[in-house]
Structure formats: C-alpha cells, structure tokens
C-alpha cells in the first residue's frame, strides 16, 4: 500500500517507518519540521506542512491507500502547552488530515489515540475523545474505515532502565516495541479491501501490556512486595534487592479490548524485563548501568 504517515519524526513515527518500509509499503512522510537525517527516512517522499492549518495535506494524500495519523500533544506536555495548543494540534490537526484524506479518496485510517480517552474531561483526554469522534464522523459520512489505537505510557526512559522502564511495567507502562507491533497490526488489518456492500468498520484497540497476573495473585503485595513478586516471578527477589528496584506500590491489573480483532498480542512485561536483567547481570553490573533508552 501507499501510506501517508503524519508526524513521521515522532516517537512512534521513527519506529514504524522502518517497519513499514521493510514490509514493502510505499511511504509519504509529513511533519512540521524537516525530518532528521536518520537511515529510516532516507530516500522517502516528504511533505512539510502544519496540520493545524492543513495546507499541503491534500497533495500529500493523493494516491495514498491509508493514513497513519500520529501527531499530538500528550499528557507530558500539559504544563507547557495550553488548552488552545492541545485543541489546535489534537483536534484541528486531526480534522484537517481527515478532510484531506477524504478529498484524496483515502478510506483507511490508523489513528493514534490514548488511554487518556477515559479521562475525557482532562486537557489531553478530552481532545482524544473528540479525535475519535472525528474518526467516527468520517466513517459514518465518508466511508472511512479506521483502527483507533489507545496506548498506555511508552515514553522514553533515558538512563533509568531499572525503574523508569522495568518497574513501570508493573504500573501500566507498555513497551514501545509492543506499541509498534500494535500499529503495524492495525495497518495489516486494514490492508484487505472490504467486500462489496460491507459496512466500513471501526475498531478500537487498547495497546497495553499483557496480563500476567490477577488481582488474587497480588494479595498481600503491600505487606511484602518482594515475597509477592517472588511468587509470581520466581527468582526475582535477588535481582530486586541487588538493584534496589522500587516495587513498593501494588501493581495494576489491565484488561485491554480489541487486540484479538487485529491479531495483536503484546509480549513484553515485568517478567520479560526480569529475564533481560538477569542476562545483563550475568555480564556484570556495569552492563546494567550502561543500559540507555534507544529511542
């Protein structure tokens, strides 16, 4: 397929462009600023435009089969961006991109939403609610098929591999590679043509970590987190103590929707982190200390 990727230099954009290229798709990239000089962008068509006003989008969408819409201000921007900023990018930007797709005859959409959809009167969550409503409006009125992906926290973790990445997986964090898997599965899901006369579909997917424990398994966590974790992940106590990983809060149990509809299954969680940490630990504590966020 020929795919228009808006927000191509974003966190997800940088990762998914390489994957879509490898899968054989033809890509048109768009962003507010010129793309960084990175291998995944080399040789690809680029259209520089500001989606908040829409100029240039119709031309970028011409001849495309699918729109992958990524740009947004997120919760981490709440202190520095106003309500007007959030509205212009998250709502106006989504509207103009969808209008450009409609004009160009694009009838497939993957929309990057957020779990803050549930916080629908928060500054961020409200705009994602409206964004999903815009997707549904275009489905009902213009035949747009779409998958709305609602990820949880997958922000970069810098040098704090043990807590900002590892322990975060107990509290709702999702691995970026799982996020990329979800977006790629969403594209694959929309690839086949609809049967003649079929209703354009709308799929919502929660991009969250896999459920690897239950509420029952977490009983007594607050009283003795290390013992509770050891029951669920045998052999974890020694690593947790040696590296002073903070698991004092009771973990969250997550239940996602929509993953089966697109053939998506997250694979990375606190247990896989512990396996990776154990492998690094065998090489020495310096190998653990050297871990840096790759994105």
TrEMBL record:
Organism, as annotated: Actinopolymorpha pittospori
Protein name (Swiss-Prot/TrEMBL): NAD-dependent epimerase/dehydratase domain-containing protein
Pfam families (UniProt xref): Epimerase
Domain NAD-dependent epimerase/dehydratase: residue ranges: 3-152
Species classification: Bacteria, Bacillati, Actinomycetota, Actinomycetes, Propionibacteriales
Lineage top rank: taxon: Bacteria
């Amino acid at each position: 397929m020929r795919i228009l990727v808006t927000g191509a230099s974003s966190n997800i954009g940088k990762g998914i462009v390489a994957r879509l290229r490898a899968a054989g798709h033809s890509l048109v990239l768009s962003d507010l600023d010129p793309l960084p000089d990175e291998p995944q962008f080399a040789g690809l068509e680029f259209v520089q435009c500001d989606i908040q006003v829409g100029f240039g989008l119709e031309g970028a969408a011409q001849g495309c089969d699918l729109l992958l819409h990524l740009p947004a201000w997120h919760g981490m921007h709440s202190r520095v961006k106003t309500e007007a900023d959030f509205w212009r990018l998250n709502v106006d930007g989504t509207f103009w991109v969808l209008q450009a797709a409609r004009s160009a005859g694009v009838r497939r959409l993957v929309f990057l939403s957020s779990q803050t959809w549930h916080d629908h009167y928060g500054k961020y969550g409200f705009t994602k609610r409206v964004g999903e409503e815009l997707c549904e409006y275009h489905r009902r009125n213009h035949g747009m098929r779409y998958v709305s992906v609602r990820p949880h926290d997958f922000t970069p973790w810098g040098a704090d591999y043990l807590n900002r990445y590892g322990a975060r997986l107990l509290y709702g964090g999702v691995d970026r590679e799982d996020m990329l898997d979800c977006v790629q599965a969403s594209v694959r899901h929309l690839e086949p043509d609809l049967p003649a006369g079929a209703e354009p579909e709308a799929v919502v997917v929660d991009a969250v970590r896999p459920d690897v424990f239950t509420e029952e398994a977490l009983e007594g966590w607050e009283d003795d987190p290390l013992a509770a974790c050891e029951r669920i992940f045998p052999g974890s106590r020694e690593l947790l103590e040696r590296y002073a990983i903070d698991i004092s809060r009771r973990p969250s149990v997550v239940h996602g929707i929509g993953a089966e509809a697109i053939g998506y299954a997250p694979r990375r969680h606190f247990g896989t982190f512990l396996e990776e940490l154990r492998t690094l630990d065998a090489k020495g504590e310096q190998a653990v200390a050297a871990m840096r966020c790759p994105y």
